[in-house]
Amino acid sequence: MRLLNRIRDLLNASLNDLLDGLEKPELMLNQLIRDLDSSILELRREIVTTLTQRNLLQTRLDKARADSARWQDNAALAVGQSRDDLARQALQRKHAALATCTSLTTQLAETDQAVVDLRTQLRALEDKAQEARRKRDTLLARQRTPSATRASDIIAGFDQLARYEEQIEHEIAMRDSAHAVRASDLDSQFEQLRRQQSLDAELDALKRRKTT
Fold first, then answer.
1. 56 or 191, greater pLDDT
2. pTM of the full predicted structure?
């Protein structure tokens, strides 16, 4: 009876109501899962015990039916031998066997129904346990998600910083290149002036030789 009451309470319990307002609902779910697993184990044992009783009832019913048929045969034998007294006793035994058959048939039907009910409750408990495990896993996944998100944000921040650094280095390199180009252009201009000066001097020298 206590097992059935506990099973009824577990099946009637609403997971959302149990978890509402709890700071750490996964702890309640862990306890609920342990209770469900314990009840499932007890219920399986109860089913095995009930099936054993059912088999014993079937064996007793088969024997009672065989006894009824045997006493019927004995009554017919006694009548054939003009032993009405033995026939009456045989018929009494036959009716007692039939009464036993009726009683055992009723018990067997009740036991079969009990097995069906127990198996139905077992499936319901197993479904409840799976539901509790899914909800617990969902809660744990949600708890892990913020940490994972923060880590992802930190990594993304480092990546962005690295891109900024690369961009700055690129801009510095471009500026240095521009400076170098401008410096090179200036040097080339002075070099050109020197060449032009050299040519002018050489031309002047030729002109002076010609005039002399």
1. 56
2. 0.56
